[in-house]
Amino acid sequence: MPAIGMGTGADPMPPAEELISIFISAMEAGYRHFDTASFYGTEEALGRAVARAIETGLIKSRDEVFITSKLWCTDAHPDLVLPALRSTLGRLGLEYVDLYLVHWPVRLNPKTEGLRVSEEDILPFDMKGTWEAMEECCRLGLTKSIGVSNFGTQKLSKLLENATIPPAVNQVEMNVGWQQQKLREFCKEKGIHVSAWSPLSANGASWGSLSVMDSPVLKDIAAKRGKSVAQVALRWIQDQEASCIAKSFNKERMKHNLDIFDWKLSEEELGMIREQIPQRRAFSGHFFVSPNGPYKSLEELWDGEP
After folding, report:
1. Which segments of the chain have a pLDDT < 50?
2. Nearest to 135 by CA among 195, 87, 71
């Protein structure tokens, strides 16, 4: 899996043809990993971009790109996983994805629209049965590997109790302002690769924060090194042996975000980042908490790390 993936989720969503152009620009800049999801609504545009890139010779074959997609909560049920992946592949126009993730450890009523979640929409989540269906997708060759997203240590432990194919990846919110030390140590011990979404703390999103881009610590390191704050933040993730999903639809920033591999942060700089930056999760997931649902508090949703 490439060390940096191109994030494809956007709100508001650009028109389809503009999205296709953006994804082709990303391939021209050097991106070979694209992170999508049924929830994002970008699978079809991404598939068309890959097809167009092959047609024009930008890439030689589908095998040159690594495609991640995700099972949305409305399909997080043993009977719905395989049909959901087949639908994803149909929208992508592909025979397989490289990585298929359970987007959240949550099941929602299939009629739920977006994140407009009522308490009645939150249903019991059959983790064991859902993961068995994910494993079947892998055995059928519809995905090369399977993993999870937004799982804490307790949920991973529960999943691993019955898994015959352990999750290859846990994709979680991770950046210098939410470093996930405990979770990263657990995943390393269990052989699960950590991939970071929101590596720049979703600067500009309604739920995002400026904890990364306005960090005095990162600004100081960036000024001394002649790098941008974003480059320092992304390099930090590489130095934690994690990969990241960086989203920018700006051509120059796309290239900028890839320019982090010919240098490393010093031990002193890593120590400053570890010890001097306040820690806070930006995306709370509060809409998945309900008095009658499986998670009655943020502590339960995040396994004690809200």
Report:
1. none
2. 71
